[in-house]
Amino acid sequence: MAASDVKILGAWTSPVAMRPRIALNVKNVDYEFQEENLDSKSELLFKSNPVYKKIPIMIHNDKPICESLIIVQYIDEVFTSGPSLLPSDLYERATARFWATYIDDKWFSALFGTANPKTDQEKATAIEGLTSGLALLEEAFEKISKGKGFFGGETIGYLDITLGSFLGFLRVAETLSGMNYIDETKTPNLHGWAKRFCSDPSVKDLMPETKKLLEFAKMHFSGGLGAQRK
Amino acid sequence: MAASDVKILGAWTSPVAMRPRIALNVKNVDYEFQEENLDSKSELLFKSNPVYKKIPIMIHNDKPICESLIIVQYIDEVFTSGPSLLPSDLYERATARFWATYIDDKWFSALFGTANPKTDQEKATAIEGLTSGLALLEEAFEKISKGKGFFGGETIGYLDITLGSFLGFLRVAETLSGMNYIDETKTPNLHGWAKRFCSDPSVKDLMPETKKLLEFAKMHFSGGLGAQRK
């Protein structure tokens, strides 16, 4: 697949913009990447996503696709020669979609909430949401991975991409709070999974360094970690 | 398909619980329906959706599937003998998913916000969000339906089900505000579509009467229309 056919508009700091790039890497599809300055977005971005005016956007054969998980599903359906991202078993596919929605709709807001809590109570609630969510995902990993390395089995799949894209900001949240949310004792499955995910060839060059991401977060997110979500 | 294979847990007042039922009707699949008392939910509900403890839930061959749009996609993938709910063209499929996500994540909160605004400013913002969203969907209908009766073409599809399930509460919101949000002048495409949708055999026995729904809303939703969402 020639690079000119596929273009991704994103930003190195954006977890959700990492998703289509990982998916394309897993599928072994070349693409062109356009780094957006989010303080001065490109004409192409406004034209391609007039409803949300947000990254990530994938442009495929001159047509835009928006919303990270919709893009990942589109990539899975269009580039069928690479490994499947969603399970072929339909019940397992619904289960992967369920946990992906859980991560974006519920777990992420707890991760976000740990960054800049206004009160001790807010901080405690966010940490409780974050850790209880990780406990659920730890248990889900056991069932879904069936003893293999990833939620997707032998290779990175839809749910790996959904959760894994937040690992950079999870590390930032760990640094800010001085706590380890994923560790060998509480979440041994996720601990091993996170290591494998970050060192996978489809991910390792995309995962931002925690130190750089922390600097960025401190400079840009006075309201919390999540200003760039979607 | 025997009714015993498929069971839906829902409530007559819930827009999102209507979605799997419409999808099964379009596919001509029999199912058993269990009306949940949301003040005293069943054991089966808690067991089947321990994460959210919410309707709708579909139980298929003793396995639960949760989240309305995930259930609708599952129904589309499992029961392939009926009409397709999602477009077969992959770009059109991504487009249907985009607008469905827009409706649930953005447009719905405006609909919800019109019900019990705390200030005139809040009311104006909600009405602006609701009507500008409908203007976008009016334009989208023209492109997506390609001159046919539904977003899904000749028959009701994924996006019809997503938006159409909110028509009952849209009428409640219209009654409460004394405004017509969908009408022949501002949104002629959606006006015709809403009529066709509500009189379709797969929908008409499921769409609650506005008067009954209004009574229910006044009794139950002091905080707004959306307490039962998901």
Number of strands of chain A: 4
CATH topology of the largest domain in chain A: Glutathione S-transferase Yfyf (Class Pi), Chain A, domain 2
Tally of helical segments of chain A: 9
Q: What is the total domain count of chain A?
A: 2
What is the 3D form of chain A?
Answer: globular
CATH architecture of the largest domain in chain A: Up-down Bundle
In words, what does this structure look like?
The structure is a homodimer of 230-residue chains. With 230 residues, the first copy, chain A, is α+β, with helices and mostly antiparallel strands. Chain A has helices spanning 15-26, 43-48, 68-78, 90-113, 120-145, 158-164, 167-177, 188-199, 210-220; strands at 6-10, 32-35, 57-60, 63-66. In chain A, strands 2-1-3-4 form a four-stranded mixed β-sheet, covered by helices on one side. In chain A, helix 1 links the parallel strand 1 (6-10) and strand 2 (32-35). In chain A, helix 1 runs parallel beside helix 3 (68-78). The model of chain A is unreliable at 226-230 (pLDDT under 50). The interface between A and B is medium-sized, with 21 and 21 residues.
What attributes does this structure have?
homodimer, 230 residues, alpha+beta, transferase (chains A, B), disordered C terminus
Write the SSE topology.
Two copies of one chain form a homodimer.
Chain A lengths: L5 E5 L4 H12 L5 E4 L7 H6 L8 E4 L2 E4 L1 H11 L11 H24 L6 H26 L12 H7 L2 H11 L10 H12 L10 H11 L10
Parallel strand pairs in A: 1-2
Antiparallel strand pairs in A: 1-3, 3-4
Helix pairs in contact in A: 1-3, 4-5, 4-6, 7-9
EC number (chains A, B): 2.5.1.18
GO molecular function (chains A, B): glutathione transferase activity
Subcellular location (chains A, B): Cytoplasm, Cytosol
